[in-house]
Protein: Bulb-type lectin domain-containing protein
Organism: Citrus sinensis
Amino acid sequence: MISVAIVVLLSSCFYSDFGTATATDTITSSQFIRDPESIISSGSKFKLGFFSPDGNFTNRYIGIWYNKGGSANKTVVWVANRNKPLIDSSGIFTISEDGNLVVLNGKKQVHWSSNVSSLANNSNTRAQLLDSGNLVLHDNISQVSIWDSFQEPTDTFYSEMKVSTDLRTGKKVQLTSWRSLSNPSIGSFSAGLDSFTIPEVFIWINGTRPYWRSGPWNGRYFIGIPDMNSVYLDGFNLGEDHQKGTRYLTFAFADNDVFFALTPQGNLEERAWVDGKAHLKIYFFYPTNDCDVYGKCGAFGSCNSQKIPICSCLLGFEPKNAEDWNRGNWSGG
């Protein structure tokens, strides 16, 4: 952990809930949870259950959160029905007849499904919440994993998870921001690994437009992140799964209470539990200033966050559109 970093107490993204937790870490067709019940991973690190972001029970979601910070607060790392909330407290989280995990309302209408095809019946599957924070759907006969929440992340990247890119199709396992602090539906920003010859981490706006990049991976760290060489040495690992045709990024720090979250404003924040694991702090965030924003000053423009205005043209060039430039829109170069 970096002692010289700017440290900010994290006061947002905590949500109130007073549901009861069962002793099990498993969901089956006969062992399901109703709002406001929850389950806890075997080592008590994570909890899964129903929550409301604004605490007023208007919208209800199934999520996973750290089992820390006090019983009335939660730091949500994954949301199932993020785009289709329940509108009351009649929700159920269970295994359906086709063997998939489902979120149902009081009328048994599906608000979310793990959506795995070719499952025989519900007696052959069970879901388990692991101490890694991963929710895994198992086939009871083969004992193999057939779906897990790490493959469909929300806004949080934590230890043992892999963000990846399929080198053949370009399909990504990536983070997607919440729309706002009170609305976990998919927001404007996403973050993941780009499939260039030399990999980089990108934050995108609306899925395609670059907003920030880490700089290329040099075999040990991303060269565009200041101090990563000394800070994260041996923490991150970039690898390839040749059988699946994917390239992936994962991390493991000595302090396993470190994680990264993509905010609704497009910042990728490093967060960690401190003070006896009762509070969260933000240690780093990217982009760190306006000049870190991809293409802020456009082609042949130079950015200096210490100057006003921050953008200027390189020697021998002038603004492409002087009116836009004077209004502070420098992206045209």
